[in-house]
Amino acid sequence: MKFLYILISIYLLSFPARAMQDSVWDDVERSKTCFFDKWRKNLAIVNKPWAQIILERFTDKDITFLDMGWMNIGDEGAIAIAAILPYSKITAVDISSNNIGVEGALAIASVLHHLTSLNMGQNSIGAEGAIAIARSLKDSQLTSMGLSKNNIGDEGAIAIAAELPYAQLTLLYMGGNNIGDAGAIAIANVLPHTQLKSVCMRCNSIGDVGKVALEIAEKKSPKGTFVLVSNQQSK
Questions:
Q1: Residue 7 has what pLDDT?
Q2: Which residue numbers in the chain have pLDDT < 50?
Q3: pLDDT at site 83
Q4: Assigned domain for 65 exists
């Protein structure tokens, strides 16, 4: 009798979680955009691997924008998202602040050609992850990319700069990445030959030489590109 009582209790306790899960996905499937902001805390109580949920719920759906920022999905999550992109209608992804490292960046880079917008800000992809993404830019239709606070450094910035003239990017965010003069100068050298209209390089470690180079490039840009380099980190 006591055992039966425990089983019933477990079932009743799990009901709100399952009901919340159904409510979340009913809401998602009524829209072409998936925002997890409203449900983020509640999804945490659903006793099912979220990566499995992604694979089940987003394949062959009409959702075009997937927002999974601040969900601590890690590399495993980025790899799961990359796996479903070719079988979905998703063209814009926000996976910022998710503890994603190099492996996750490599996975996203491999499917970059499916996206027009990507925000991977506040992760840990480093220079290696930035290099992988840079190599995929040429074959993508990406117009907006956020890589702020990923510690990509000069090496990552230089790799991205090398591919910018061949990319479709109009918006690029690389703030807070420990980028110095070398990275800034690399961006400045190609800026007039890109599609970029807005570049954020704030909160880096760019000195006077790098700032002057970016200012000159900004003036030379036929697109009227705006480059933000204020609020530098102390060198």
A1: 38
A2: 2-48, 234-235
A3: 86
A4: yes
Q: What are the φ/ψ torsions at residue 150 (nearest 5 degrees)?
A: -125, 5
- How many other C-beta atoms can be found within 10 angstroms of the C-beta atom of residue 167? 23
What are the backbone angles phi and psi of residue 71, rounded to the nearest 5°? -120, 5
Strand duo 226-228 + 198-200: pairing: parallel
How confident is the model at residue 50, as a pLDDT?
58
Q: At what angle do helices 208-220 and 181-190 cross, to 10 degrees?
A: 10
C-beta neighbour count of 13 within 10 angstroms: 10
Beta strand residue intervals within the chain, DSSP E: 33-35, 65-67, 92-94, 117-119, 144-146, 171-173, 198-200, 226-228
Is residue 235 in some structural domain?
Answer: no
Q: 150 in a domain, yes or no?
A: yes
What pLDDT is stored for residue 124 in this prediction? Answer: 98
Give how many domains the chain has, as a whole number. Answer: 1
What tokens does 133 get? 């993404």
Chain centre distance of CA 103: 14
**Of how many residues is the chain composed?**
235
Structural domain containing residue 198: 2-228
- Does residue 199 lie in a domain region? yes
Cα-based distances in Å from 44 to 65, 66, 73, 198 = 21, 18, 12, 36
